[in-house]
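Can you give me the bound-state structure? Components:
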Amino acid sequence: MVLAEDSVLLREGLTSLLRHFGHDVVAAVGDADALRREAVDRLPDVVVTDVRMPPGFSDEGLRAALALRAERPELPILVLSQYVEQTYATELIDAGRAAGTGYLLKDRVGEVAEFVDALARVADGHTVIDPEVVRQLLDRRRDPVRRLTPREREVLGLVAEGRSNAAIARRLVVTEAAVAKHIAGILTKLDLPPDADDHRRVLAVLAYLRA
Amino acid sequence: MNPRTALAAAASPPWRLARSVWPWRSLAYLLTGLVPAALPLALLAGIELLRPELTALVGLLLVALVIVAAAGPVLAGFERWRLRLVDARPLPARPPLRLAEPGLWRELGYAVLGACVAWCLDLAVIGLSLFPPLLLLSAPLQPSDASAELSAAPAMRTVLFVAGLILLPLTAYPITAWAGARAAIARAVLAPADPDLADELVEVMRSRVRLVDAFDSERRRIERDLHDGAQQRLVALSMTLGLTRLRLADDHPAAALLDQAREQTAQAQAELRELIRGVHPQILSDRGLAAALRDVAGRSPVPVDLQLRLDGRLPAPVEITAYFAVSEALTNLARHSGASAGVVAASVHGGRLVVEVSDDGTGGADPDRGTGLTGLADRAATVGGRLLLASPAGGPTLLRVELPCER
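Here's the bound-state model for the whole set.
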């Protein structure tokens, strides 16, 4: 994988963390231009990038990620951010029509196992959105979302984070059948087409939350 | 920029002037000048009717002088009120009623002069401006048989009529310009500008803009320092704690403490993130006002409906001012209004950004009660804009910010 992060401290920390879990970090760079170069040269399986990087210290990392995505639509990208901003997350998801995108707060890096798991899911072509961003999207859509039971809201949050039925079942300590029932109920209430494919389901939910 | 005086309005292009309220306000201004004229006209009528002897005439004139002098303050007040029709800028307070007060004598003199002389000029300007187009418009009504002085064919009359129609909106110019000039004289008399003061004021305005700019760039610097420093260190700390926790078995005596430490680190990160966003929202610099407003509305605990008609970027000071105004308004809305829903509307027209935040709450918002609204009004003023608040007890509340933004 290729890692882009402008803070030396975090770049080295992340590199050693990922190597510790057996990932091969082929390049760790500190600015958006280098990220684009390395991603084109080394054809990594997955790219992890910060949002805010030199030269401009605005959102070069995210823009570089979107540009890479335009060139290689199947390239999995995980964006690490300090901002709970729907705008950044949704731009990334929109680019991620072909799946394999993630938007996580840097805070999640401390949840090491979770973080590595999320990275693996992005590399496998799933969509992963930070729970904090999902919560904001949920808070914003009050109308039909308000009609959901607390349990259904919980399930919806996990669906929006890109988790599969099995993972949700494990997380909530219920059977997969129960999860499937919850999800059917949610999709009915939100007026979304029931869809077996995990990933398409996530996109449908996110599209709904953004609308 | 919307003109604030009739004189400024007289410089706008015809289609804009004819559609604006200024010609009508100017007409009203000039016509209300006839009200004080009633006094001298009554005197003249009295002389005409009574045909008094010389002594009686002198007496009558003396009485009239006393009446006019007594009515002076009232007339002066009327003049001040009238000035608002064609000059939106506020006047300073009235001078006190003291004999040694030069401002008072200026006011009285101006009022007497206006009552006796100026209205004739006003009427003359109105008459001369309206006479040519009205004459042309009357062409179809003029007698046109052989005995008429000027006979014209029907086609010619139509042409004259149309010419009159075209000329009519143009009369807005002399009327508006004259009213503006009269208002400028009135302002010069009622609120004489102190040249030193004017220079100082310009300097104060400039320094205020500089202060706000410095304040903004300072905020950006603090935001950057926090982001590059404390925030990154906290992430590194949480990463180290996370890795340490992985090396400990769940039953290790330090595991619970370590979990606590991670929890506290996560809280510190969340708080710092909110703090940084309050200091300067990065999304605003990156993606502009519309995106930043969407995000701030998305955070509001009270449902907020967005009606944004903004395309492209606006000047940075305008964006920052508008953003903080909305942010502050939504905070107040959530805290004090008791509203169940709010609306944020923003659009640009005529070189002005207009942002409105409204809610269906209980109203009664008071800028003096430390709601941060006063600071917002000051901020809006530095970029040449203004902030209006309507919040009657019982609601609803409407906050409107208008900011000039020449692109």
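A couple of observations. The mean pLDDT of chain A is 85. Chain A has two domains: 2-141, 144-210.
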